[in-house]
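Lecture notes, unit on protein representations.

Consider one protein chain, 134 amino acids long.
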Amino acid sequence: MIDPAMPPVATSPAATSSAATSRIVTDLVCGFCGLGCDDLEVKVQGRAVRPRSACPEAAALLERSDGEPPVPRVAGRETSLEEAAARAGSLLSGSRSAVFSGLGADVDGLRGVFDLAMRFGASFDHAASSGLFR
């Protein structure tokens, strides 16, 4: 599990909001596979988010994240998000067969990827896809 010191999951809405700066959100649908289990728990404390799952597959995938925010890069050098997005747009526009993969996103995130895929005629693959790890 990501945070073994996380307190037990509360079952009532009143118990989940016991402190204004710290709360536990329960019964979230896990996006790591197509089963749609609702055993994902997230402890929110300020801006910090600590997820954990009872599912061993999801727990292993959650542990793969180092929690550091991504740093935009172009050709290996750090750059602004705007420059990185412009370069990505340029590459996608020039691509004949783009693929978006490694997608561990919620529904809204995947909607954004679907929009991009439609715009560029691309394919996509979810993070938990067996094809991604072959």
